[in-house]
Design a protein that fits this description.
The complex is a heterodimer. Chain A is mainly alpha-helical. Chain A contains 1 helix and no strands. Chain A has one domain. Helix content of chain A is 92%, strand content 0%. Chain A is rod-shaped and about 55 Å long. Chain B has 3 domains: 405 residues, no CATH class; 174 residues, no CATH class; 93 residues, PDZ domain (Pdz3 Domain, Roll), CATH 2.30.42.10. In chain B, strands 6, 7, 8, 9, 10 and 11 form a 6-stranded antiparallel beta sheet that branches. Chain B has a 4-stranded antiparallel beta sheet with strand order 2-5-1-12, sandwiched between helices. Chain B starts with a helix and ends with a helix. Classes of the chains: A mainly alpha, B alpha+beta.
Chain lengths: 38, 894
């Protein structure tokens, strides 16, 4: 593994974590809103 | 829980600074980003390099002798290449041809000192030949490749009759030959040497050998392409079986074009023995038509082993790419850990920003000052980055805490986190930076450069962590309150609470004190086994079963010893080396030191005289003596050296015959062996003075390692003392207390004992590479204690109760410290899987160090404070009593 492959992997991985985290929190918010509406 | 109001009064200036940083966030950010961009650009220009001279204590007298005579008598950078015949001896035409060609190719490797190659295939390795009329002449053993079996037999006879060759360049069982080449230090390029030896010296003659000698480039016109033309074919080999003929040009292997001998070998080695490959061949005189020829890859009939410092570093460089996968896995693992801890991507990202900015500043600075990274100190950047990340984790945790406390007001939380953690973070950073800077006192250039670089790098954390922190938080959207609250609900928090309660119970306190006391005593007992220098004969830089150590062991087994110790006999005047008394003392010195089990054999000018004398007397051993007069000595020298150019004779004696050397070839460079050999040398020199010359210690690998080990012995204790002293002084000023330093240093002292014990137990010697890591470890271990102690003081200023403050500090800052410690340990522990044993061991040791420091800071430090109730903390309780109203407010808020 070289320098640029390594950088590419960590950047993609980090973006993946951020996106996954946002999706999880968005779902939770929606669920809370739904539960609040009920 | 502390009160923001009370603290705000104490830290007005810091709160003001936090506010201004947010107000002026755009210009501050722009300036930092521009500077970071410049450093980032420089970072990508960095190269991995090792400068041999930088590794040596240049002021040491041994190194000065080495520097003065390395160019003449040989230095520490030797490569030993052994060609071993798998069946039978080496005295047959194909094997001797390969030894000759290997020597020729070795002579062309970049950086080789052409006059310091020892091999039966090199022009400078000579024997005495009696000529008609009773004249003796020193002639090269091989002037060209042998053509016939008679030529090979003649070479065998010469070798067996020449004392300076048999057993030294050809093994006593006739199955192996040694090619020894010395490299010019200023031209050392480890990567290039490694590649050239692999591709040009080994591959074409070992596993790329097909049973035919392929023409190489014309030495006088190396730039002219030299196609792979079959020069000589040997009977009964794969090449003759395939139907190759002299003059054929091999143009491809399995359809892949090959341009020359090196390219041909590179293609052949890809196929296992027994595999059938198709060669594209242009027949001699057959024009451009290419014919396909089936060749069965032969079994290796010779094995080539290569050892020596340049080769070792070549292997280290080839393994240095480990850093990329370790970095990738560490980064990803730590992101996941931080995300799980903070329940939010900001908690994963924010420490990374700190780490990356500090890394760019650090690496860019390395390039700026003209320093290159040594592959053996690659653990250090990881450790410093892990430290930067751990400070950021502390800050992020505090930010969430303050966010909750300030009723989800982001700006107030940012400013409060910045102001409250400013002192412990700044003290931690300065402690680390100055702790490392003391390494500058070791008179070794590499360590001095390292001290400056790492110190700067750590200092850069103040920018990335403290200056940018409020700004970055302000740019990022505030986390959801549920995310912040979730931190107090998980199993991790519950575990910390339980462990804290247990540790602070009456039994827990006694247990903790007893546990660390017993551990310290055991550690102190075990650390007596710690040695300076390398503890084993194998190189500790790579694993014991690595190709390098396997080669090294094979060569040592076959030739007894190949690591030189050069003792210079420096004449007081010209012709001093013609004095029989000086020469006899040198020979006596050889016999004296050869009794040491770590010395394989030796060589001096006296050996040449003795062998010439023997040749004069039909090789009768009793005539192997030094002549009695300077005139006879001079005549004997004349016989041997008469027709040699000064470039060849100078490796034995200077042209004015003033100075020569005694070289001892040692079996290994174990630290205790080196110390004993040097001590014996000094005893002999003291008891056997020469009238016309003085012995001067010492060059060669063993000589410079002896110097490095002596410098380490002198500086190791000094480093430890200064490391602790620096930390003590900083703590003294930070907490305005004589006792604070003692409390904080106690866990570190125990960690230091235990890590030294671990080094002794695992057979890791203190050497030039371990010294900075040990000192850095001392500095880095203090941070855990600083965060906990600061929090205790902060809490007692509010609630006035020591035990309550200790508990509060442990479940808040202590929790963040524990997570930080796991991240630090994770950041270095992955190095344990490196192919570079040195990095693996140091990564593992530092991980253990960080863990022990954390554990001691988290358990021993609070228990000591609880037991001894230091006045520098209790006096802060008085301030809480002065502010009853404030405390009451705080209690109400909490």
């Amino acid at each position: 593994m070289g320098l640029w492959e390594s950088i590419a992997i960590v950047v993609v991985f980090s973006i993946g974590v951020i996106v996954a985290d946002e999706i999880i929190h968005a779902r939770r918010r929606k669920r809370r809103e739904r539960e609040g509406a009920h | 829980m502390s009160s923001g109001t009370a603290s705000e009064q104490d830290k007005r200036a810091l709160y003001w600074l936090g506010e201004r940083l947010i107000d002026y966030r755009h210009p501050v950010m722009a300036v930092v980003l521009v500077i970071t961009g410049i450093f980032a650009y420089w970072s990508f220009q960095l190269k991995l390099e090792t400068s041999f001279g930088d590794l040596l204590p240049q002021s040491h007298p041994f190194v000065q002798v080495h520097n003065k005579y390395a160019g003449t008598f040989g230095g520490a950078n030797n490569i030993q290449l052994m060609v071993e015949s798998k069946e039978g001896d080496i005295f047959n035409v194909p094997t001797l041809t390969r030894i000759y060609k290997i020597t020729e190719e070795m002579d062309r490797v970049y950086g080789v000192n052409h006059n310091q190659i020892d091999s039966i295939g090199h022009r400078t390795t000579r024997y005495l030949r009696a000529q008609s009329g009773g004249f003796l002449k020193a002639e090269p053993v091989m002037l060209a490749v042998p053509k016939t079996a008679e030529d090979a037999s003649s070479i065998r006879r010469i070798v067996h009759n020449t004392e300076s060759i048999y057993g030294i360049l050809v093994s006593l069982d006739d199955r192996a030959a040694l090619v020894r080449a010395n490299f010019i230090e200023a031209r050392l390029d480890h990567r290039r040497t490694f590649t050239e030896i692999n591709e040009r010296v080994i591959a074409p003659f070992e596993n790329g050998w097909i049973g035919a000698l392929i023409k190489g480039p014309d030495p006088l016109h190396p730039e002219v392409p030299a196609p792979a033309i079959v020069d000589t074919l040997y009977r009964g080999t794969a090449a003759t079986d395939a139907g190759l003929r002299q003059g054929d040009t091999i143009v491809s292997v399995e359809g892949r074009p090959v341009s020359d001998r090196v390219a041909l070998a590179a293609q052949i080695v890809k196929h296992p023995p027994g595999a059938a490959v198709t060669l594209g061949v242009k027949r001699a005189g057959g024009g451009e038509q290419v014919e396909n020829v089936k060749l069965t890859i032969p079994e290796r009939d010779v094995q080539v082993y290569v050892a020596g410092e340049p080769r070792l570093y070549g292997w280290v460089y080839s393994y240095a790419t480990d850093v990329f996968w370790i970095f990738t896995v560490t980064w990803c693992a730590e992101w996941i850990l931080r995300w799980l801890y903070f329940h939010d991507w900001r908690g994963a990202l924010r420490p990374s920003i700190t780490g990356v900015i500090a890394a760019f500043w650090g690496l860019g600075f390395v390039h700026l000052i003209g320093f290159a990274l040594d592959p053996l100190i690659l653990v250090m950047p990881f450790l410093v980055s892990a430290r930067a990340v751990s400070h950021a984790i502390q800050m992020h945790d505090r930010y969430y805490e303050e966010f909750e406390r300030h009723n989800w007001d982001q700006r107030k939380a940012i400013v409060a986190a910045f102001a409250e953690l400013f002192v412990p973070t700044f003290a931690g950073v300065i402690t680390d930076a100055l702790g490392v800077l003391v390494i500058i006192l070791v008179p070794v250039v590499m360590l001095q450069k390292l001290a400056v670089v790492i110190s700067w790098w750590i200092s850069a954390i103040t920018v990335s962590e403290m200056l940018l922190n409020p700004i970055v938080y302000y740019y990022l959207r505030a986390p959801d309150p549920e995310v912040v609250l979730a931190r107090d609900k998980g199993w991790y928090k519950a575990a910390i609470n339980r462990l804290t309660d247990y540790n602070l119970s009456a039994f827990g306190k006694r247990f903790t004190l007893a546990f660390w006391l017993i551990l310290a005593v055991i550690g102190a007992f075990m650390m007596r086994g710690l040695i300076v220098g390398d503890p084993t004969s194998a190189s500790p830089l790579v694993w014991e079963d690595s190709p390098y150590n396997v080669s090294h062991a094979h060569i040592q087994d076959k030739f007894g010893g190949v690591e030189p110790l050069i003792v210079v006999a420096e004449g007081k005047d010209r012709d001093a080396m013609k004095d029989p008394q000086a020469l006899r003392t040198m020979v006596k010195f050889q016999r004296f030191l050869e009794r040491d089990p770590a010395v394989g054999y030796s060589f001096s000018l006296g050996d040449i005289l003795r062998s010439v004398n023997m040749v004069f007397h039909e090789l009768e051993p009793k005539w192997g003596v030094i002549p009695n007069t300077a005139r006879d000595v001079g005549q004997t020298f004349f016989v041997f050296f008469a027709n040699l150019p000064p470039t060849e004779t100078s490796k034995y004696v200077t042209p004015d015959y003033a100075t020569a050397h005694v070289t001892f070839f040692c079996r290994n460079h174990k630290g205790d062996n080196i110390a004993r050999i040097i001590q014996r040398c000094q005893e002999f020199i003291r008891d056997n003075p020469m009238e016309k010359a003085n012995f001067r210690l010492a060059g060669g690998l063993i000589g410079v390692l002896a110097a490095a080990n002596e410098a380490l012995v002198r500086n190791d204790l000094l480093m430890n003392f200064l490391g602790f002293f620096t930390i003590y002084v900083i703590v003294l000023f930070s907490y305005r207390s004589w006792a604070a330093g003692l409390y904080l240093l106690a866990p570190l002292f125990i960690s230091n004992i235990l890590i030294n014990a671990a080094m002794a137990y695992f057979g890791i010697g203190v050497n030039i590479n371990t010294l900075p890591l040990v000192t850095v470890g001392v500095g880095f271990g203090i941070d855990y204690g600083l965060y906990i102690l600061s929090r205790i003081i902060e809490e007692i200023r509010v609630n006035g109760d020591l035990d309550l403050s200790i508990r509060e500090a442990l479940v808040t800052s202590g929790k963040a410290v524990s997570f930080t410690a796991f991240c630090m340990v994770g950041g270095t522990a992955l190095w344990s899987f490196s192919n570079i044993r040195f990095n693996a061991v140091m990564g593992g040791l530092l991980a253990v160090w960080m863990f022990v420091s954390f554990l001691a800071s988290e358990t021993l430090l609070p228990v000591m404070i609880s037991y001894f109730r230091p006045s520098f903390i209790l006096r802060e309780a008085a301030r809480a009593q002065q502010r009853p109203a404030v405390a009451a407010t705080a209690a109400a808020v909490s």
